[in-house]
Design brief:
single chain, 557 residues, alpha+beta, twelve-stranded mixed β-sheet, four-stranded antiparallel β-sheet, 19% strand
Length: 557
Amino acid sequence: MDKWPFSRRALMKAMLLGSAAPWVMSSEGFASSCDDHIVRLGAIVASDSMNPFATWSSYWPTFFTYDTLVGVDAQRHSDRKGFAKEWSVSDDKLTWTFKIWSGMKWSDGQPATAKDAAFTYNYLRGSIGKPEELNVGWNNTDGLQNVESIKALDDETLQIVTKAPTRWPIDNFMMMVPEHIWKDISYVDARSTFRNDPPLVGTGPMIVSEFQQGQFVRLIPNEYFRTGKPATAGMIINFFTTADPMAQGLKSGNLEYGFNLTTAQWDELSKDPNIVVGQQRIEQRNYLAFNTATGKGAGSTKALQDPTFRDAVGYAIDQRAIVDRAFRGHAEPGVGLVMPSAVEYYSNWNDIRRHFDLAEAGRRLDAAGYRDANGDGVREDKEGKKFQLELITGTRSGTLEMPIAVVQLVAGWLGQIGIPVSVTQLDSGALIDRTAAPTNGGGGWDLLVDASWLSPSAHDVLIIGKSGARDNTSYWQNDKFDEFLSEVDQTADLKKSKELVDEAARLIYIDAPYIMLCYPTLLDARRKDCFEGWGRDDQVSQWGYFPFDRLKPVPAP
């Protein structure tokens, strides 16, 4: 836990970042030549296991080795497919049929068929309701409760029958695993002790061959990859805790690609003629959350449970200033739950959208009974207690780092309307602990500046408001919202899904357990000199392994 003044914390951060530079130059994951044709990446991740049933932090690099059945990329891009090359749904939206690639093989040469996909899902289904239920990693039971049956009709045909219409069969992120590897792994081992040590066996283009926790992972080309063995000699993903070493590695030629860059690093790299910088919309939402819990885990004042108080505070937040001043334009102003990258569901809501007006925020607080009775500049709640709110913040593993200027701006605006705020900076682990459900020891804070990066599916867009959900860091509960989410989970029609998302998102916007601050863009950079075949709008996909299945070494001059 870190309660240092901002200036001292910034100084210590600079010292720590400076100490990382020598490691960058000496790590075995680095090289300064294109000759070996190995793609070297930098990423701010904290991979802990290569077992997709037991990790949330290793999407990079496991998705290079394992295919999802469909997933985001295959729905957005006709040339990017997963385990299934095509799919369809029956008129009643209950029976989904997936055609698996003919003749596909696992990286050990064994046939990869619809039977493996059926095994993956049924392996998960079999754990439902048991003490060792598989619900602690990317491969989890979420959504499978609505499944009636999953079976392979033949080697190339998978059938999923659901109990009610749902888009889950194409939206889920389960990684398809080989039955001949996993069939003898118990549920107890799968969710805990089985680390799935390299070399892994998958159908993706790159196979994890070595894993050094906290340092790097090495991957080799899959000679059985369905579109042909990749043209590179492999990959090395170097793990970092900050972006500074990545920027240095890109400039020196020791890295080919890095993402999660800061705006200052991105601006500097954009001036290098050997580097191409990019930015893309992603699904991250940066938000201010109120602790709405009652009883155990509640905040310091009941005002946090009052929608009129939360709504009034919303008028004190200038989202445009956050984008311009904290992100230097590399973000979009926050509105509701739906981020602009989820184009099927996004709306700007000009009819109900709040506007920044400190005077209006003050008037609304006065009208709601939160006044400054003695004129000392600090308001009192309805119980006569002066406001002094604790705001906690930090960067979770797997999300883009939020500039501390965001917190400074929010704290400053609240101070101007008579609500003083103290800031507690937490590391990722401590932040997870403090924002856990009160029944699991979380809570006790007042305000939270945090981020969430889930998928663009309707379910994931709304899950932040579901009662009791792990992602619901405000502890907000609303039966009508839960009904909307339940309906969303039981519709396969995109138009109907959009209508439900809009209604649910409007409901939570008005009740205001969250104030969306902004939707940051992902800043990345790559070198031009070693490899070609990168993407344009998205240099590197955040939902699949594109373009690492098709990169080629730049021909020698």
